[in-house]
Specification:
Chain lengths: 289, 629, 226
C-alpha cells in the first residue's frame, strides 16, 4: 500500500525533466499564440468602449490586464491537462504511492519571484493609469488626478430614484436629462439627497458613488457625439433597477441650443431653487411627519 | 469496567420534556412575547422618542432578543452555570451519550455538534438556494414581474445574507468541530459548551432572517448600506439581528478553535506536523475573532439609529454613510477570506491522499494561508474605489489587494506540485477538489480587474463583480464543502455515499456552475448593475440562458440530496475505517468515530502526508490514558 | 423490510412538507406588497385611443383598503365609480391620457425643488383647481405623479393646513377639502414604465421615503403600456 512507486511510471529524473520540458514548451507556444490574439483581436472590443478619453484608457487597461493574465491561464491549463491525463492511478483502488517529493527551493523561488514581479507590475501600471486622468472614477471632494484646461462643471444629483443635473455655469440650471458637449473636459460633481447611489455612465467609463453630503468629483473628456447609458450602480431601494436613462454627447452648437431650451423650461421654477452648492441637506433631515 | 450501567430509557413522552429543542422552541416563543410586551411597556410613555409613528420597532428588536435568550435557556445553556453556582462539581455530561435525541439538544460531544452543524447549515443553505432560484425566475424577463420590485429586493437580500452568514461556518462548523480535535489528538474542544452555543445561536439567527418576510422584508442586499438601512422596513431588524448573531457565533467559534489548536495538541504534534486543514482552520479562526466584533458593533449602531434615534449613519445630522461602508468592509473583506481559506485547507488536505504523494511545500502552503489572512485586513477599501472616500489612498489599496495573489499563488503552487508525478485517483472528493483550481483561477483572475482601480470603474457594482465573487465563494467554498462531505461523511456517519450519483452530481454542478456564472461577466460588461429587477432588453437572451442553467445547477443539488438520503437511510453501505487510503489520524479510527474516540492520547511522530516514504507510525499508542475530563 | 417502508413513508412526507413550505413561501412572496393590475377603459377618437383616469391621493389608506391602514396612498376610480387601491395601470400604447387627480393630503414639501415644475405633459402645464400653472411652490407639494422614463413629472399641491372638513382616511368624497389637478400626456411605445411620488410623504420614515414610498400599491406603481 505504501511502497514508493519509484518504477511505477518508469524512468529516472531524465524522464521527469522531459515531462517538465513538454509542459514548458506547450505553455510557451500557447502563450505566444494566445497573447497576441488577446491583444489585437479581443482587446479593441473590451469594455467600456472609446466614448471618452477615460473610457479609452480603461479599454487599454483592460487589454493590458487580459494580455498579462493570458500566460497565467495558459500555464495552469497546460499544467492541469498534462498532469491530470499523464499522472493517473491505474484504477480507483490502486493505492501505489507516488514519489515522496516534499520540496524544491528552486521552483519556490522562481514562483515567488515571477508572481511578485507580475503583481508589482500590475499594481504600478494600475496606479500610473489611475493617476494619469482619474480613469473616470469618483475621486471625492479633493481629486488627486486632475485634468487641466478649460472645463464644464456639471452636478449630478442622485435622489430616490432619479438623477437630475445642474449646470452652475448656466445660472444653476437644473435638468432631468444629461447632455454634454463633444470634445470637452467635463467635471462631474456627484452627490445624493438621500441614500447611497452610484452614477454609472457606461460608455463614458464613468462611475462615482453618490453619497449624501459629499461632493464626489469625476473628470471625463468627451469625444465624438454619441448616446450613452446611465445606470444606478449601488442598491438604493425599491426602484434601483429602474433608475436608468440615456444621456447624450452632442456638438457644441447643439448643446448651446439645448441649454437655451432647458432654460426656458427652468425659468418658472428658478426663483424657488436653492443656490448652487456642492451638496444639499434638504428637509426632512431625519424622520418625516 | 466491572459494573455495567443498565440503560433504563424512560418513555418517549418523558424524554420530550426536558432541556431539548422542543423546550427551546417553547421558551423561545414565550421569550419573544415577553420582549414584545416589555418593549411596549418601555416605549408607551415615550412612543415618539423610541419609535416611528405606525409601528413599534423597538418591540420587534426586543422580542427577538428575548426570544433568542428563551431559546437558549430552553436548550439548557443555563443549567451548568446554575449548577456550579449551587456548588455542584464541574462535569461535562450534557448528553454525551444517548440516541438520536442528542442531535436535538445541547450536546457537548464535538462529533455530535459537527453533524448538527452539517444538517443545520444544509437546511438554511437550501433555503438560500431556493431564493437564488426565485431571483433567476424573476430575471427571465425584463418586463414581466413575478415578484413586486420590493419583494424581489428582499429575496436578493435573504439569498445573499443567508449564504454569507451561514457559509462562514460552512466548513469550520461541521468539519472544523468534528475533525480538529481528532486531528490534533484531543478528546474534545477547549470550550465544549461554547461550541454547542455557536451552533444554536446560528440556528436561531437563520430562523430570524427568514421571518423578515412577515415584517416587510429589507431592501439593502447583504451589505445593508446606510442610510438605506435606516430608511427600510422593520424587516431590516431581522437582518441586523441575524448578522449580529452570526457575528457572535463566529467570534466564539473562532476563539474556541484557536484555543483548542494552541493548547490541546497531542504530544509530538509540532507546528510543522499539523494537518494543513488545521492550519486553514487556524487562519480562518484568527480572521473571525478579529473581524466579526467589528460587524457586531456596526450592526448595534444601525439598530440604535433605527430605534433610539441616534445618528451614526445619517450625514445631515453629523453621521456618515462612509462610516458604515468603512466598518462593514473592514469586516466584509476578511469575511470573504473566512469563506475562502477553509477551502484552501480542504483542497490541500485532499490532494496528497488522492495523488498518493506528500503535500509539496508544506511551509509555503502555511505561509500562503497566513499571508492571505494577514493581508486581508489591509484591502477593504478596494470595495470603495469609486465611493470618493480616501481617493488618494487608492494606489495603496491597489497594491495591497494585488499582493494577495502572491500567497494565494502559494496554494496553487503547492497543489500543482503535489499533483505532479502523482498517481491520481478520480474519486468524487478529488473531483470537487480539482474543480476548485479551475473555479478559483477564474475567480482570482477576474478579481484582478476589480482590484485595479481604473478597470474597477466599469466592473464595480455590476454583474461582473457578482459573477466574480460567485466564482470565488461558490466555486471556491461550496465545491470544497462538497469535497469535504464526500470525503468525511463516511467517517462521520459510518455509511458510504453512492459514488455514481456523486459523479453525476459533480459533473452537473461543475458544468452548469460555469455555464451559469461565466456569461454574467459579460452581462456586467454590457451594463447590468447588481440587484436589478429589470435590465436592458438586449441582455434578455443572456439572462434567460443564465436562468435556465441556474435551474439545472439547482437540480444538481437535488441529485446530491437524493444521494445523501438514499445512501444514509436506505442503502447504508458500511464505510470501512479508511475508505480513501489516507494516512491522516482520523482515518485510523473506526467509522463512525465512537463517542470515546481515543482510549489513549496519541503521540505524533510525523505529519500525515508520508506517502511513498518509509512507513513511520504516525500514532504511537503509548500516550497517557485519555480519561474523562 | 418493514423499516424500509417506514423510512419511505417518512421521506415522502418530508418531501411533501418541504414542497408545501416552499409553495407557501413563494405564494406569500408573490402576494406580499403587490398591487392588483387595473385596466383603464379605452375610448376611441377616430381610431386614436384616448384614456381617462381619475385618481385620488389620501393621507391614510384606511383599514378598508389595506393591512397597513396608515400608509399614504393613491387610489383609482373604476368604471363602477368605486375607488380601488391599484397602482398598476394598463393603458394602450400611443394614446392620449387625460388624468384628473383629487388630492386630499396636506403638503410635505419637495426635497428637490426642481421637481415642482410640471414637465412631460401637454404644454408643460398642469391645471390646478381650474387654473393653469407652470410651477408650484416646492414647499406646497403634497405628492408628485412622475414617470421618469417619459421625463414626466406633475407636482400636486397639498390641502391647506387650516382647511375645514379635511379627509383623514380613504375613501374621501369630493365634498371634503381637496385640490384638483388635471393634465394630459401621451404614451409612446409599449413597455413597462414605473411611476412614483417624489415628495417625502411617508410619515415616520427616514427622509420620509420608507414604507408606502417603497411599496408598490401605495406611492409607486407601473404604467403597463400595451
Amino acid at each position: 500500500m505504501s511502497t514508493p512507486a519509484s518504477t511505477g511510471q518508469g524512468g529516472g529524473d531524465a524522464v521527469w525533466t522531459k515531462h517538465a520540458k513538454r509542459v514548458l514548451l506547450a505553455w510557451l507556444v500557447l502563450s505566444a499564440i494566445g497573447t497576441p490574439i488577446i491583444w489585437f483581436v479581443l482587446g479593441p472590443h473590451l469594455p467600456p468602449g472609446k466614448g471618452s478619453v477615460q473610457a479609452a484608457g480603461q479599454v487599454f487597461d483592460n487589454t493590458v490586464l487580459t494580455a498579462v493574465l493570458t500566460p497565467v491561464i495558459a500555464l495552469l491549463v497546460v499544467f492541469f491537462v498534462y498532469a491530470l491525463t499523464q499522472f493517473r492511478a491505474e484504477s480507483s483502488t490502486d493505492l501505489t504511492d507516488g514519489p515522496p517529493m516534499r520540496n524544491d527551493s528552486t521552483v519556490q523561488t522562481w514562483w515567488v519571484a515571477v508572481t511578485g514581479v507580475v503583481v508589482l507590475f500590475l499594481a504600478g501600471f494600475g496606479t500610473y493609469e489611475l493617476l494619469k486622468d482619474g480613469s473616470g472614477g469618483g475621486q471625492g471632494p479633493s481629486p488627486i488626478a486632475k485634468v487641466s484646461g478649460s472645463n464644464l462643471q456639471v452636478q449630478v444629483i442622485a435622489q430616490q430614484w432619479e438623477f437630475t443635473y445642474r449646470y452652475p455655469s448656466y445660472g444653476g440650471l437644473e435638468t432631468s436629462q444629461l447632455e454634454l458637449p463633444a470634445n470637452t473636459t467635463v467635471v462631474l460633481h456627484v452627490t445624493s439627497l438621500d441614500a447611497t447611489h452610484s452614477f454609472w455612465a457606461r460608455q463614458l467609463g464613468v462611475k462615482a458613488d453618490a453619497n449624501p453630503g459629499v461632493d464626489n468629483v469625476v473628470y471625463v473628456q468627451t469625444k465624438n457625439p454619441m448616446a450613452f447609458d446611465i445606470h444606478c450602480a449601488e442598491l438604493c431601494g425599491l426602484w434601483h433597477g429602474y433608475m436608468f436613462d440615456t444621456g447624450h454627447v452632442v456638438q457644441a452648437s447643439e448643446f448651446a441650443s439645448w441649454i437655451k431650451q432647458q432654460q426656458q423650461v427652468f425659468a418658472s421654477i428658478a426663483k424657488y431653487m436653492p443656490k448652487y452648492a456642492t451638496f444639499y441637506y434638504p428637509d426632512p433631515q431625519r424622520r418625516a411627519g | 469496567m466491572s459494573t455495567v450501567a443498565v440503560d433504563v430509557r424512560p418513555p418517549l413522552w418523558r424524554r420530550l420534556i426536558g432541556f431539548n429543542l422542543l423546550t427551546g422552541i417553547v421558551l423561545g416563543v414565550a421569550g419573544w412575547y415577553v420582549g414584545w410586551y416589555l418593549a411596549h411597556a418601555i416605549s408607551a410613555a415615550s412612543l415618539d422618542y423610541f419609535s416611528a409613528v405606525d409601528y413599534n420597532e423597538l418591540s420587534v428588536a426586543l422580542a427577538y432578543i428575548f426570544g433568542v435568550l428563551g431559546f437558549l435557556i430552553g436548550l439548557g445553556f443555563l443549567n451548568y452555570p446554575i449548577a456550579r453556582l449551587r456548588g455542584y462539581p464541574p462535569s461535562l455530561r450534557e448528553k454525551e451519550t444517548g440516541g438520536v435525541g442528542r442531535y436535538f439538544s445541547l450536546c457537548t460531544d464535538h462529533k455530535v455538534v459537527g453533524i448538527q452543524y452539517l444538517i443545520g447549515i444544509g437546511v438554511f443553505v437550501f433555503i438560500g438556494g431556493v431564493n437564488a432560484m426565485l431571483i433567476r425566475a424573476e430575471l427571465l424577463s425584463p418586463t414581466r414581474e413575478i415578484f413586486p420590485a420590493g419583494t424581489y429586493l428582499t429575496i436578493v437580500g435573504v439569498h445573499g445574507t443567508m449564504m454569507m452568514g451561514m457559509m462562514t461556518s460552512g466548513i469550520l462548523g461541521p468539519f472544523g468541530n468534528y475533525l480538529v480535535p481528532l486531528m490534533i489528538g484531543a478528546r474534545r474542544m477547549a470550550f465544549p459548551r461554547i461550541e454547542a452555543l455557536t451552533f444554536w445561536i446560528l440556528m436561531a439567527g437563520g430562523t430570524i432572517l427568514e421571518t423578515t418576510i412577515f415584517f416587510g422584508g429589507f431592501p439593502t442586499g447583504w451589505t445593508g448600506y446606510a442610510p438605506l438601512n435606516i430608511e427600510a422596513n422593520v424587516g431590516m431588524v431581522c437582518y441586523i439581528l441575524f448578522f449580529a448573531l452570526v457575528g457572535i457565533s463566529m467570534t466564539l467559534l473562532g476563539l474556541n478553535m484557536i484555543v483548542t489548536i494552541l493548547t490541546m495538541r497531542a504530544p509530538g504534534l509540532t507546528w510543522t506536523r499539523l494537518p494543513i486543514f488545521v492550519w486553514g482552520v487556524l487562519s480562518t479562526s484568527t480572521l473571525m475573532v478579529l473581524a466579526a466584533p467589528v460587524l457586531i458593533a456596526t450592526l448595534l449602531m444601525a439598530l440604535l439609529d433605527r430605534t433610539a434615534q441616534t445618528n451614526f449613519f445619517i450625514p445631515s445630522q453629523g453621521g456618515s454613510s462612509y462610516l458604515y461602508e468603512n466598518l462593514f468592509w473592514f469586516f466584509g473583506h476578511p469575511e470573504v477570506y473566512i469563506l475562502a481559506l477553509p477551502g484552501f485547507g480542504i483542497v490541500l488536505e485532499l490532494l496528497p491522499v488522492f495523488a498518493r504523494k506528500p503535500l509539496w511545500g508544506y511551509r509555503l502552503a502555511v505561509a500562503g494561508m497566513l499571508g492571505v489572512a494577514l493581508l486581508s485586513f489591509f484591502v477593504w477599501q478596494h470595495h470603495l474605489f469609486v465611493s470618493g472616500m480616501n481617493a488618494d489612498l487608492r494606489p495603496f489599496y491597489i497594491l495591497s489587494t494585488e499582493l494577495i495573489s502572491i500567497p494565494t499563488g502559494f496554494t496553487f503552487l503547492c497543489g500543482m506540485m503535489t499533483l505532479w508525478r502523482g498517481r491520481i485517483r478520480y474519486s468524487v472528493p478529488m473531483l470537487f477538489a480539482l474543480a476548485w483550481f479551475f473555479n478559483f483561477l477564474i475567480g482570482g483572475l477576474t478579481g484582478v480587474f476589480l482590484s485595479d482601480a481604473p478597470s474597477d470603474v466599469t466592473t464595480h457594482g455590476s454583474f461582473f463583480s457578482m459573477a466574480h465573487f460567485h466564482y470565488t465563494i461558490m466555486g471556491g467554498l461550496v465545491f470544497t464543502f462538497f469535497a469535504g462531505i464526500y470525503y468525511w461523511v463516511p467517517k462521520m456517519t459510518g455509511f458510504m455515499l453512492n459514488e455514481t450519483l456523486g459523479k453525476v452530481h459533480f459533473w452537473m454542478m461543475f458544468v452548469f456552475f460555469n455555464l451559469t456564472f461565466f456569461p454574467l461577466f459579460i452581462a456586467g460588461f454590457f451594463g447590468q448593475p447588481r440587484r436589478v429587477v429589470t435590465y436592458p432588453k438586449n441582455l434578455q437572451f443572456l439572462n434567460d440562458w443564465v436562468s435556465v442553467c441556474a435551474f439545472v445547477l439547482g437540480a444538481s443539488m437535488l441529485v446530491f440530496i437524493y444521494n445523501f438520503v438514499k445512501s444514509m437511510l436506505f442503502d447504508r453501505v458500511p464505510a470501512p475505517a479508511n475508505p480513501w487510503g489516507s494516512k491522516s489520524i482520523e482515518f485510523q479510527l473506526p467509522s463512525p468515530v465512537p463517542v470515546h474516540d481515543f482510549d489513549r492520547i496519541p503521540v505524533f511522530s510525523g505529519d500525515p502526508y508520508g506517502y511513498g516514504e518509509a512507513p513511520t507510525p504516525v500514532i504511537v499508542p503509548a500516550g497517557a490514558p485519555a480519561g474523562r475530563d | 423490510m418493514r423499516s424500509t417502508t417506514w423510512k419511505l413513508i417518512g421521506v415522502v412526507l418530508g418531501v411533501l412538507l418541504v414542497g408545501l413550505l416552499i409553495g407557501f413561501y413563494v405564494s406569500s412572496l408573490t402576494k406580499e406588497n403587490g398591487s392588483p393590475s387595473y385596466t383603464v377603459p379605452v375610448q376611441n377618437n377616430n381610431g386614436h385611443p384616448v384614456v381617462n383616469m381619475t385618481i385620488q391621493t389620501v393621507a391614510a389608506v384606511g383599514p378598508e383598503y389595506s393591512s397597513n391602514p396608515d400608509f399614504v396612498s393613491y387610489l383609482i376610480r373604476n368604471t363602477q365609480g368605486k375607488w380601488v387601491r391599484s397602482t398598476v395601470w394598463r393603458v394602450p400604447a400611443n394614446a392620449t391620457v387625460h388624468v384628473t387627480i383629487y388630492n386630499f393630503d396636506g403638503n410635505s414639501g419637495l426635497r428637490n425643488a426642481y421637481l415642482a415644475r410640471p414637465m412631460g405633459v401637454d404644454g408643460n402645464v398642469e391645471m390646478i383647481d381650474g387654473t393653469a400653472a407652470d410651477a408650484i411652490n416646492p414647499d406646497d407639494a403634497s405628492h408628485t405623479f412622475a414617470v421618469p422614463a417619459y421625463h414626466l413629472i406633475v407636482p400636486l399641491p397639498g390641502v391647506a393646513d387650516n382647511a375645514k372638513n379635511q379627509c383623514g382616511v380613504a375613501p374621501c368624497t369630493l365634498s371634503m377639502a381637496h385640490r384638483t389637478v388635471t393634465f394630459t400626456f401621451h404614451t409612446g411605445a409599449a413597455g413597462h414604465y414605473r411611476w412614483q411620488c417624489f415628495v417625502p410623504c411617508a410619515a415616520g420614515w427616514l427622509y420620509g421615503f420608507g414604507g408606502p414610498m417603497q411599496t408598490i400599491g401605495y406611492m409607486d406603481g407601473f404604467l403597463d403600456v400595451v
